[in-house]
Amino acid sequence: MEGVQSLIDFFLSRTDQVWAATFRHIQYVVAVLLTALIIAVGVGIWVRHRPVPREIALGIASVFLTLPSLALFVIFIPLVGLGFGPAYIALTMYALLPIMRNTVAGLNGVSPAVLESARGMGLSSRQRLWRVELPLAWPVIMAGVRVATLLTTGIAAIAVLVGGGGLGDFIFAGLRRMPLPNSFESMWTGTLLVIVLALAFDALFILITRATTSRGLR
Amino acid sequence: MTEALIKLDEVYKTYPGTEIPAVAALNLEINRGEILVLVGPSGCGKSTTLRLINRMIEPTGGRIYFEGEDVTSVNPDVLRRKIGYVIQQIGLFPHRTIAENIATVPRLVGWDSARIEARVDELLSMVGMDPSIYRSRYPKELSGGQAQRVGVARALAADPEVLLMDEPFGAVDPIARDKLQNEFLRLQDELHKTIVFVTHDIDEAIKMGDRIAILKEQSVVAQHDTPEAILAGPSDQFVEDFLGAGATLKGLNLMRAKDVELDDVTTVTAPTSREEVIQALESSGDTWVLYLDSNGRPLRWLDRKSIDQVQALDEAGKAVRVTVEPEDTLRDALEKMLQSSVGTACCVDPEGSYRGVVRVETLMELIERLQTEERERQAASV
After folding, report:
1. Which residues in chain A have their CB less than 8 angstroms from residue B76's CB?
2. What is the pLDDT of residues B139-153, one digit of tens each?
3. What gap in Å lies between CA A213 and CA B15, rounded to an integer?
4. pTM to 2 decimals?
5. Chain A residues close to B91, C-beta within 8 Å
């Protein structure tokens, strides 16, 4: 009980700092997901009927995900300096695979009969993409986006290593001052907020997916 | 001389990496308003031939003419919007409502929304589906037969001159298929579209076709004629083998229930009583009377024994499980008769009201006559 009380005290005594870090964390997630969505869906569309480029693209995205985050965040400092930049690039690289893989799976999962009839009725390839393929693949793509969101929300805590801020600041500060007073409180504040944020994003995406998916597909 | 609406002129299709063409030097003319059935063993290239017409497959050589115009190199999307296309798996858009599915081509060619809405309702009624019920449903809520009806409605949406149908009724069960075929023939009586219809089923070909093109390997036309002429005089051994045994039985595919004289049986109409049924049996001297519901639809066959055993008329005797429609071929009628409990098939109009019966004796006489005719023909040709 004492621990919870001191955690609340810690939180209340620096709400400004907490909000700033949370906001920065949200910035990472939003910016990274938008970028990754555009790149991954774009690449996914381009490779959907091209088996060799498809395997190459998915292979590269898989390699990104296996790179140790400690290294990946630091690698870009020479290029873009400290702060938001290197963290943003590293996180985007991580977010690519789930979205790209689901985009490819969703697009390749569209029934050949549906595509055949669409073509037979005179829909051009662009019309088929926008009116048939993407709407049908959408729930699958969104499932990939949800995975990417959870991934990004968690790993964004490492941005602190390159001075990028976010909730990782609290975790790292606590770690460094161990076992001084408030170190555990600091770690717990950062960790719990990351979890809350991840759950909030996930709930948001469930709502977005429901609202943007045709009733005929549910 | 009727004008050919579609003309394939020396059309070739060779797939990359193969030497032997899938379609070799095909010449085919399709007349305005006819149903031409392309039929042949699997792998003969009949689907390929169909898909060459709307250029789903691009020909390697030769020309394709549509309404006198060479369409071999026009924009295929524009061409396809003028040609209805129905495939076996239908391919309705699962994320679109039935109305939106049907509206696909009208929207592509820029009809205004009021016109599209009216057209959707018209088409749904035409294929026998209540627009107020089905308009806003999704494909997953339809049965196989209903989905096929919507598929046909969607293909007809922008009122194309031509309909291409690739085994359209191949994926539904035999009873539903029969019904769909009849409905479609009835529809065609009103619409007079030019239809190219692919099937591997010779019985379906004989039933549906105004003319039939029997194809062998590489889409070589073995015989191209009316079903009657093909049955009467197969041009070669291949056609004969493909027609198979029982040409007489196949001949029954050429005649429809509406072509034979229907017999009458004694009927009683609900609401009625046991006494009235007994009286009807006695005064007619028949073994069976047909019990109709208040709308004139056949319900049950009743005989004296059965109503003595069971009190309620709705449970006595034998249920009328299958009925024949005027568009059914006599072959269908024969099959239904075999399923029927009394060797007699009830003929009903499209609303289901009783019109008369076809007796097995009627068909036997007809078969005997056909067999005699065939024997005489064979004797004459020897």
Report:
1. 122
2. 999 988 899 999 999
3. 39
4. 0.79
5. 111, 113-118
* H or E, element range at A20: helix A15-47
pLDDT, tens digit, for every residue of A5-60? 888 888 888 888 889 999 999 999 999 999 999 999 999 999 999 999 999 999 99
Locus of tokens 């007489």:
B248
Residue B240: how many CB atoms within 10 A of its CB? 14
Query: Residue B85 and residue A132: Cβ atoms within 8 Å?
Result: no
Would the pLDDT of B228 be above 70? yes
User: In this predicted model, what pLDDT tens digit does every residue of A58-103 receive, in sequence order?
Assistant: 999 999 999 998 888 888 989 888 888 999 999 999 999 999 999 9
Which residues of chain A are within 8 Å of residue B108 when distances are taken between CB atoms?
A: 121-123, 127
CA dihedral over B217, B218, B219, B224, signed as positive or negative? negative
What's B138-191 look like in SS3? CHHHCCHHHHHHHHHHHHHCCCCCEEEEECCCCCCCHHHHHHHHHHHHHHHHHH
Q: What is the DSSP letter of B3?
A: P
Q: B207 — phi, psi (to 5°)?
A: -70, -45
Q: How many CA atoms lie within 13 A of B31 on its CB side?
A: 14
Least Cα separation, residue A147 to chain B (angstroms): 24
Nearest CA-CA partner of A150 in A189, A196, A186, A86? A196
pLDDT tens figures, B231-255: 877 888 888 888 876 666 777 777 8
